[in-house]
Each structure stands twice: as structure tokens, then as C-alpha cells.
Design goal:
The protein has 298 residues and is mostly helical. It is built from eleven helices and no strands.
């Protein structure tokens, strides 16, 4: 008797393809998270400030009127004409192509970033499914990978890494490892040390840089993100993650400054580079560490 499990175990390529398609659909939701979560946090901060200072009346409209605003409400709509998107307008990538990148209601241009995020989500899913196969490890590492994509985009846009993502990601990594569904080869001991060392290493670097220069070189969100990466990948991966992220950040910074797209004094978010390095270590960690050892220790 054929079952879903037997089909996927017998045809791993089919499993990878199905997970990739599911990743495209998740990417559509990630676009919502990336757009709305920072606004939700901002409105929560405004509400707290208003509660502490009742005489202060400034704030966003939704925060003042009490209108529901979360990841589910209101429904996705065009910010220009408020046209509510129908089901066919929410099909990942395909809807963008059918609409030729324009709103069905007012023909306003739709950013190409939306389908690109959906494609990125699908590609992450394909890499994870191909790496870990039909298993619960694939399920939890998919959550890990999509969370990293969200963190990267939010930090790039707003230079914040929400605790609402990084802290659950840290605990999920520890729980998954404890239950045996985390990254293969990483023990709970290594995960706990990785989480602790990840946070404390950047915390120490932050204070050393602040005392030496009087400037803030990193944010607390970076500490928590590296702690989460350590919880998933173990303490052994931390050095490689920081080196890869620092190298990529330096190269991108130099290129942007050289091309005139960024001022030297403008801070660059470090979260996307940490997240990218963490995903590389998830998929190709042993190969990257072996290459690093061969390059510098030989």
C-alpha cells in the first residue's frame, strides 16, 4: 500500500520539489511578516509610551483608533488604492507575472522584491530538503531557515532584529536538539555552549569597541541572533560564522562605498550577514570548516 511517506522515501526528488513549492507559498507569508512585524512592534512601543505619558498624543492611526493590525488582519491590499487582493492575486511568483508587476486595481507598480522573496524562500526549502531528506529534521530546519530570511530582510530595512523571532528561534534550536530533531551531529551540550558563547562573544566585542571608540558597533539583536545560531549549529560553528559574516560584510561595504551607493558614516546591518553565514554552515558546514582548516592550518 502506497503512503505519502513511502512515496517520498522512494522518490526523494519528488519530496524536494514538493517542499520547494511549499517554500514559495511560505515566501508569500514571509513578505507579510517582513512588512508588518516592524510596524506591529512600532505601534506596541507607541502604545507603551502613550500609557506611560498620557499627555503624549502622537502615534500611528491604527494605534490610536484601536484597529486590528497583525499578521492576519487586515487582508493583503494595495497600499495605494486599498484594493484587497483576491486568491489568484496571491499565487506566489505567478501572480506577479500575470499582473506584469502592477496592481490589478490601479496599475501601481509592485516591487519585484515580493516575488524575489518567494523565490528565495523556495530555494532555501529546496536546499534544506535535499540536505536532510524526508524527516522531522527537515521540518525544524525549514523553520530555522525561513526565520533567518525574515531576520535578514527586517534588519536590512529597519536595522532591528526582533526578539519575537530571534528568541523563539534560540529556544526552538535547543528543544529540537534535545529531542534529536536538530542538526545532525550537534549535541545538546554543544548547543547550550553555542548559545552562551554566541551571545557573550558579540556582547564582549560590543563593549570593547564601545570603550575603545565611544561608538556602538553592534546591536543587541546581533548578540541574540548569534546565540540562536549557536543553539542550532553548536559552538564549533561560531568562529566560521563570524568570519564569513565579517568578510562578506566588509566586501559588500567596500563595494557599496566604491559605487557611491553608501556613505562611510552610514551603519550597515550585520544581521543579514550573520544569517547568511549561518545558513551556509547549516548546509555546507563540514566542507567550509575543512576548507578553512586546510587554508589556515596546513
Amino acid at each position: 500500500m502506497l503512503t505519502v511517506s513511502s512515496v517520498f522515501l522512494t522518490h526523494p526528488d519528488l519530496f524536494v520539489a514538493v517542499v520547494g513549492l511549499f517554500g514559495l507559498m511560505v515566501g508569500s507569508f514571509l513578505n507579510v511578516v517582513v512588512h508588518r512585524l516592524p510596524l506591529m512592534l512600532e505601534r506596541a512601543w507607541q502604545a507603551q509610551e502613550l500609557a506611560a505619558n498620557p499627555q503624549h498624543e502622537e502615534g500611528s492611526g491604527a494605534a490610536q483608533t484601536g484597529e486590528a493590525f497583525n499578521l492576519a488582519v487586515p487582508r493583503s491590499h494595495c497600499p495605494q488604492c486599498l484594493h484587497t487582493l483576491s486568491a489568484w492575486e496571491n499565487i506566489p511568483v505567478l501572480s506577479y507575472l500575470l499582473l506584469r508587476g502592477r496592481c490589478h486595481g490601479c496599475s501601481t507598480h509592485i516591487s519585484v522584491r515580493y516575488p524575489l522573496v518567494e523565490i528565495a524562500s523556495g530555494l532555501l526549502a529546496i536546499f534544506v530538503a535535499a540536505k536532510f531528506g524526508y524527516s522531522l529534521t527537515t521540518l525544524v530546519t525549514l523553520l530555522f531557515s525561513w526565520a533567518l530570511l525574515c531576520v535578514s530582510l527586517i534588519d536590512f530595512d529597519h536595522q532591528i532584529i526582533p526578539d519575537d523571532i530571534s528568541l523563539p528561534l534560540l529556544w526552538l534550536g535547543l528543544v529540537a536538539t534535545a529531542l534529536g530533531y536538530g542538526v545532525p551531529g550537534v549535541t545538546l551540550y554543544e548547543a547550550v555552549i553555542g548559545a552562551s558563547a554566541g551571545y557573550l562573544s558579540l556582547w564582549g566585542l560590543y563593549w570593547a569597541f564601545l570603550l575603545a571608540t565611544g561608538k556602538h558597533g553592534l546591536g543587541y539583536g546581533d548578540f541574540k541572533l548569534l546565540a540562536a545560531l549557536g543553539a542550532w549549529l553548536g559552538w564549533q560553528a561560531l568562529l566560521a560564522i563570524v568570519l564569513l559574516a565579517s568578510l562578506a560584510g566588509a566586501v559588500c561595504g567596500v563595494l557599496l562605498i566604491t559605487l557611491g551607493n553608501r556613505d562611510k558614516s552610514q551603519p550597515m546591518p550585520f544581521g543579514p550577514f550573520l544569517a547568511g553565514a549561518g545558513f551556509l554552515m547549516l548546509i555546507w558546514g563540514p566542507q567550509l570548516i575543512a576548507g578553512y582548516a586546510a587554508l589556515f592550518i596546513a
